[in-house]
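Dear colleague,

As promised, here are the two records you asked about, laid out in our usual form so they can be pasted straight into your sheet.

NAME FIELD: protein one
SEQUENCE, THEN STRUCTURE:
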Amino acid sequence: MIENTELGERTGIEKNVMRRVRLIRILGLIISTLVLALITFVLALWGIGKQVWVDRVLTNGPQDFTGHALYLVYAFAHTRFLVQILALLSFVAFLYIIRETYKALVSFFTHSHT
């Protein structure tokens, strides 16, 4: 199939190649930081698991939503400093993973329709 290619128009092959180039560029930008965030997240959760018996913390508190939330805040405030740092680190890494995944999906889907 022969297409008209006037100045400024792209053929189907050019669009396909450019879409793949953008995808590779996006993956290259986020893969290293995303992998680092995933490793940080997993190691921080592992560290928390080594320091605290998480199952006991969750079962010892009240079971209603408000009471449970307040109990978790109290438990966080009264745990060791290392556990607090690991919990914050895992939370920040988790937020970063969500953010980067969202950005990658939005970028992929908005550029794939051009």
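NAME FIELD: protein two
SEQUENCE, THEN STRUCTURE:
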Amino acid sequence: MSELALATLMLQGDRIGFTDCATYIHAVQQTEWFMAAFSAYTDPVAVTGGPGRSHADASQRLVKIGALDRLDAGKCEQACLHELAHIVTPDCGPGRELREPAQGRGSSRGHHHAWRANFILIVRMSMGKQAAMRLRHEFGQWGLPTRK
């Protein structure tokens, strides 16, 4: 877990408040490395909470950090970074073509190669090299390549 997460993602009763998630995500968006890597995405995204799991809508620039992902700071940080990677890596590439099939054998349900590469970069810069290496290993275990 990062120092930023320790400082911003505090339990309030049995959950971390989604406003704390917004503070964390917005702080990541304002880091030098993020502004250099994702200059088109430095305006703060809208962050909401709610039941269930987390979700991001790149077209709406909206991140929902679900209640199930706000039980502890470590899980919450991972969810925030995961959803932020969806914001900076839409499912459609240049020309509006899908980066991968929407369904079926060739689909990783929005977790396409470009998203995985950006997620690893975001984790590395936010949480450190070891966390990024663990994530890359997990993707490999699932048969999802992270290198071209």
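A couple of things worth noting about protein two: The two ends are 28 Å apart (CA to CA). The chain is about 45% helix and 10% strand.

Best,
R.
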